[in-house]
Amino acid sequence: MNYSKLLKIGFQIIELPSRKVRYFINKQIQGKTIEGDPSFIVGCGHSGTSLLLAILGAHSRIYAIPYESRLAMKSNDEAQLLLDEFEQRTVAEGKIRWIEKTPGHILYIDKLFQLKPNAKVIIIIRDGRDVACSIKERSNFERGVESWIQANKSANRYQGHSQCLFVKYEDIIVDFKKTISSILDFMGESYENAMEQYNKKHIRFYHYKTSKPNKYDQSTHAQYRNWQINQNIFDGRGKWKVKMNDYEKALFKRLAGNMLIEYGYAENNDW
Hints:
Layout: E1 6-9, E2 12-15, H1 18-29, E3 39-43, H2 49-57, E4 62-64, H3 76-92, E5 97-101, H4 109-115, E6 120-125, H5 128-136, H6 141-156, E7 164-168, H7 169-174, H8 176-187, H9 221-229, H10 240-243, H11 246-262
Parallel strand pairs: 3-5, 3-6, 4-5, 6-7
Antiparallel strand pairs: 1-2
């Protein structure tokens, strides 16, 4: 339903921002409220957190917060203002629950539970070699390895936690429906086929443009990321095989080889 930017109250016509109009109509007139538990996607950067947010945001009942709020890194007062905003955005879009994605929250899961004791936390894991190679494109390889180690060490504390679910990026690629269905089951929702077409409606998480920039550099990075998330899902597994040199392989084995084995990405270090 398309709502006018003008809300008639009696004989007065008051002009309000579109989101506030939709929120008022949905909440006060149609009685829509937040019903589902708040949900968070966390994990090492470059592990598929944006992809998962876009997919889940295509669900008819789930609203994807379109920016990384860094909620758990704020003061309690600032965090509460953000939580209020999340509710307003969600109800304004006619949905009943929200999901937020800030990869760095992997280090602040306890704070998320303090803010929202009933929260559901989805921890996404990806092959550290691919993560490090992706981070290398923006920073350097060693930083990528260290980020992956730090994120996973923090995540390991929540193995078996009833309000945390571990998901591998690779499983989304290999068996989309089964993996997304398991996430939705964890959240208390049902699978919808429309989620397979998550990018048919323009997504604006990082930039207002959805087109690919003419060149890629720091100034166009946000637009490039937004263009990426609007593309069809692609298989990003095994990129390390052509992007890692011998020095980087040796470095990764020394720093994170055992963790790679622990997460089932390599039976041994003979790769």
